[in-house]
Amino acid sequence: MIVTLEEPDEIASAEMAVRERLLQAGLPPGWARVGSVFEDQYLKIDRYPVRFSSGALGTYLRVEPGRHYAGGVAIVTLHEDSLVLVKQFRFATQREHMEVPRGFLGRHEDIVAAAMRELAEETGSVASRTEYLGPIWPDNGILSWCVHVVLARIDELGMMTSDEITSVSAIPIAGIDEAMSSGLINDGISLSAVALARARRAL
């Protein structure tokens, strides 16, 4: 178990221990400083002083959503017997990905309402039926937030309004395994959302 330190002398000891390890590795000693590392409207990064289960002192980074957000939503969207996917260029990977529609959840926003907002923005579609499937944790090693998965059934595809989406398409449900094994669908949130939908017998 990793315990967050609160006593000033323990915090100072943790910083000193990490600083020494950084210096020995030829890395900047400033990386040992605990507290706020970065913050903007989308996310905040903090470095915490901790004690590991071995008793060793150290620090740990934790990434949280920005003050106006509470995580994310992903929408497993079904149109007739097909799964709706959007193609989006992701700056972090510098490539396009085929994904389920998804986006941020506002701090005080209803989960299903947020999912329907994202669905409308990315596909131009309105759901005729929805079902909350549950949360997934995209990277619980560093991210504090979860992504809530919502199942949406639509009667027709609309016109996308997001300038981040390059296309909207649908693949037969029977072809999902091939789409995943071939790498057509390869982002973690989409893979997890589809797996959860299958576990809930929604696909």
List the helices and strands and how they pair.
Blueprint: E1 3-4, H1 8-24, E2 35-39, E3 43-51, E4 57-65, E5 69-79, E6 82-90, E7 95-99, E8 102-106, H2 111-123, E9 127-136, E10 147-154, E11 165-172, H3 176-181, H4 188-199
Parallel strand pairs: 5-10
Antiparallel strand pairs: 1-3, 2-3, 3-4, 5-6, 5-8, 6-7, 6-11, 9-10
Helix vs. strand class: alpha+beta
- The count of DSSP E runs of length 2 or more, i.e. the number of strands, is 11
Mean pLDDT: 95
- Taken in chain order, the helices and strands follow as EHEEEEEEEHEEEHH
Largest sheet: 7 strands, mixed
Query: What is the gyration radius calculated from CA atoms?
Result: 21 Å
Give helix % range.
10-25%
Portion of residues in beta strands equals 35-45%
Number of helices: 4
Question: Gap between N and C termini, in Å?
Answer: 37 Å
Q: Would you mind describing this structure in some detail?
A:
The chain is an alpha+beta fold and 203 residues long. 24% of the residues lie in helices and 40% in strands. The mean pLDDT is 95. The chain starts with a strand and ends with a helix. Strands 5, 6, 7, 8, 9, 10 and 11 form a seven-stranded mixed beta sheet that branches. Strands 1, 2, 3 and 4 form a four-stranded antiparallel beta sheet that branches. A hairpin with a 3-residue loop joins strand 2 and strand 3.
